[in-house]
Amino acid sequence: MSRTPTRAFHGERSNAYLSWLAIAVAGFVGAQALVDGRIHETLFAATVVIVAIVPVVALESTRAALPWEVTTVAVAALLVATIFPDLWRRQLVLYTGGAAIALALTLEVHALTEVRLERWFAVAVVTMVSASIAAVWAMVTWIRDLLAGTAILASNAELMWLLITATTAGLFAGVCFDLYYRHFPGDELVSAPVDGIDEDVFAIEADIDGRPPLEERLPVSGGLQRVLVQVLRLGMVAMAGYGAVTLDFGAVSNATAMLAVTFVPTLLRHRYDLPFDSGLVLWVTVVVFMHSIGSFYIYDRSFWWHNLTHPLSATLVGGVGYVAIRVLDEHREEIHLPPELTPGFIVIFVLSFGVFWEIGEFGFDVVAGITGLEMPLAQHGLDDTMSDILFNTIGAIVVARWGLPYLTDVTDAVTDRLDGWSPLES
């Protein structure tokens, strides 16, 4: 009998026995770590146990289990971590092992939901989930450090290497995911086939049709919204002009780039007839203006402005992620994300994007240290990096919970405009 992804959860008894053994080991090691106050081992073990028993609960069978190889790799990382006496190497091993958890979650999503992932997209999803898991672990550890006065996350450099390791391991796990599914019949990564998906399924099932546009929800008129957009643009022009007069080329480049971003919705509306109402344009303009004036003056003088702009920026990133998944869902038969899972995907997309961004800033810092050149992006210590990730998460949750209805008209228009575009054709 041919083996299918779902059958992997109902395999031979030996698979279930080995998986339950791995779960028991993870539970025992995690309990001991909890008693000893080792937060990373506790978090890792708890995550492994929760993820591993999802098939049991969902399928109501003690024989429902992940492929034993996946669970074993995750538990092996936990056991290896206990061997090292120093905290740094234990963390490094566990963040690497998080990729196995990301792979397990992706396998479960395939087998237990209607999700369909094309191979390249499956690799990307595993990588994003791995980076997101690392970000969540880091946030929990950082918050504990703040409350308990400890220094488990000792420095920004150590944090960044943990995130880099987790992301790299996630990419490797994603490739393993692809190779694993090549052993199954068929050309697509489909575990729970969905026939005849309605092209409007997102709007219908997510209950986001019929909502008023953002322009109508704001407490000011559309005309005043357009005036505010122009005022904010003039403010960025003034910042660029001041930078030119004072020979502050960093201020010039930052203000100019932010100003250009504010015209993107207008360009898309005129060029492709996309329905960017004045409320959406104002939203984009406010976000980039706050970043622009922050870089120009406020960031160096106030921490709270920085914490305000990051969740707002995360809402834009979440919006881009929503448009992207809608386009892929409409135009790639091999890809489908059920509407009830869309908010979760948006959060993972934003979380992982934040990790990738921080890794990029860290890379700029390394280059600046080697060359002595001034880089356009820089990090400012552990608390700065962790507060960025924390407030990115808040922004992701906000847009996933309340912001998607205001993007529906735009995403519908984008998918319509891309009909017949060959790169999206199967």
UniProtKB/TrEMBL annotation:
Keywords: Membrane, Transmembrane, Transmembrane helix. InterPro entries: YjdF-like. The keyword Secreted does not apply. The chain crosses the membrane at residues 43-59, 66-88, 94-113, 120-140, 160-181, 251-268, 280-299, 311-329, 341-359. The keyword Transmembrane helix applies. This is DUF2238 domain-containing protein. The lineage of its organism: Archaea, Methanobacteriati, Methanobacteriota, Stenosarchaea group, Halobacteria.
